[in-house]
């Protein structure tokens, strides 16, 4: 099994964490997305959208989109509930992550860390407001729960952790979200959890 990835990516981090938690061996193929390596004809044949992460579970078969990869790997493991409704709730939170958390928190963080937007720009402020709205939703849900679904750690918790724990780097303080902060600690304490997401490489910064 191969994983095409750029290590500072939190989307890739989700997948690498799950691979470690499931004890699955793989070969890491580094892709320098800021040197255009994900937009070659060869890479487009793996993912027409030209983005990492991409999993090659067996020779010549490629799967893109981090959450599709997570669901594929988690199938039939302890990280995916068997109950149909609980599985749908796992999907609910993973759709929420891609729709609401990643494009706002993830983009604000990327812009701030790589100098693409000034802290005062309206477009950044909008992403930060949407991040706060997403964190408020998580706070309401986690106020009375240990984990996102069924009171047990699932692939949805891992998925949401990846960007949520980076909120301070997106200019959002987590102090007003105590239930989210406590949940992040519980998720981080799961066996096999990876260390911090590596920082962006120098070539990610705009000149
Ligand atoms: N929805 C996708 C997003 C993947 C994504 O945006 N990957 C970024 C790195 S985090 C990338 O490869 N960017 C290169 C590009 O857009 O050219 C997922 O969850 O995998």
From TrEMBL:
<dbReference type="InterPro" id="IPR036249">
    <property type="entry name" value="Thioredoxin-like_sf"/>
</dbReference>
<dbReference type="InterPro" id="IPR004046">
    <property type="entry name" value="GST_C"/>
</dbReference>
<feature type="domain" description="GST C-terminal">
    <location>
        <begin position="83"/>
        <end position="207"/>
    </location>
</feature>
<comment type="similarity">
    <text>Belongs to the GST superfamily.</text>
</comment>
<dbReference type="Pfam" id="PF00043">
    <property type="entry name" value="GST_C"/>
</dbReference>
<dbReference type="InterPro" id="IPR036282">
    <property type="entry name" value="Glutathione-S-Trfase_C_sf"/>
</dbReference>
<dbReference type="InterPro" id="IPR040079">
    <property type="entry name" value="Glutathione_S-Trfase"/>
</dbReference>
<dbReference type="InterPro" id="IPR004045">
    <property type="entry name" value="Glutathione_S-Trfase_N"/>
</dbReference>
<feature type="domain" description="GST N-terminal">
    <location>
        <begin position="1"/>
        <end position="81"/>
    </location>
</feature>
<dbReference type="Pfam" id="PF02798">
    <property type="entry name" value="GST_N"/>
</dbReference>
<keyword id="KW-0808">Transferase</keyword>
<protein>
    <submittedName>
        <fullName>Glutathione S-transferase family protein</fullName>
    </submittedName>
</protein>
<dbReference type="GO" id="GO:0016740">
    <property type="term" value="F:transferase activity"/>
</dbReference>
<dbReference type="InterPro" id="IPR010987">
    <property type="entry name" value="Glutathione-S-Trfase_C-like"/>
</dbReference>
